[in-house]
Amino acid sequence: MDASQGTGISALPEGCISNVLSFTSPYDACTLSVVSSLFNNAAESDTVWERFLPTDFQSIISRSLDHQSLSASSSSKKQLYFRLCQNPILIDDGKKSFTLDKWTGKKCYMLSARDLTIVWGDTSTYWRWVSDPDSRFKEVAELISVCWLEICGKINTQMLSPAAMYTAYLVFKLTKEAYGLQSHPAKVSVGLAGSESFTRSVFLDVEREQRRGSFNRRGNFGLLASVPNAGSDGGYPKERADGWLEIKLGEFFNKEGKDGELEMSVLELKGGHWKGGLVVQGIEIRPIRE
């Protein structure tokens, strides 16, 4: 072969490089695109980004109310990919939202409050359904007052990315008049229907940890109910980038080929005391980045 043709990777056809990049990850493809103009062109290929999209992406998009405009306005598979990463789409009559994790391409879902089972949720004495400009959904559920707090959600594991570790979160906020949530921990769980679930105790009151630290520094032990070990998960809500709060419910590994219902729950039943001011947007299920 003529030496002027080169023997390095730059001698490979662009299509060949695109095919190789499609077996990496979105993060790797973006990183390698700065190596050279050849790699940049290869990394822009639909061959690469169609492989990063879920195999059922067209079916998922078809369940969106604006599926036609979404497909028509995306000039490439890369553009469609990043639109799905940056802008959640509402599917299933607006009761779920769907996004992609930017760096892995794995599926993320949020089940709206309307897609959850909330005990007494349709009784106006206890809960009310209101709009919230900060919510991605048409309605959120606002707790007026209950002594029996029970919120459950479920999703078929076939909807999730295979061979992926997921974490479920309750996404919520508190009104200024919130009360009763700091007194007793809630029990949260995640697991397959018919199997043993991962269960732990959490507090839904974001200010409790601050008060706990203040009490402990002053030596005023025993003023609050026992607090679960914070650990790396905290056991307390964390503020999200969108301004809402989230509390971890648990983790779940979605085995490839496994079919079942993933069940998630938030329960606070034992105290028998009244509580209110919890505003539920939904339950989010998103992959853990390796």
From TrEMBL:
<feature type="domain" description="F-box">
    <location>
        <begin position="6"/>
        <end position="52"/>
    </location>
</feature>
<dbReference type="Pfam" id="PF00646">
    <property type="entry name" value="F-box"/>
</dbReference>
<dbReference type="InterPro" id="IPR001810">
    <property type="entry name" value="F-box_dom"/>
</dbReference>
<dbReference type="InterPro" id="IPR036047">
    <property type="entry name" value="F-box-like_dom_sf"/>
</dbReference>
<dbReference type="Pfam" id="PF14299">
    <property type="entry name" value="PP2"/>
</dbReference>
<dbReference type="InterPro" id="IPR025886">
    <property type="entry name" value="PP2-like"/>
</dbReference>
<protein>
    <recommendedName>
        <fullName>F-box domain-containing protein</fullName>
    </recommendedName>
</protein>
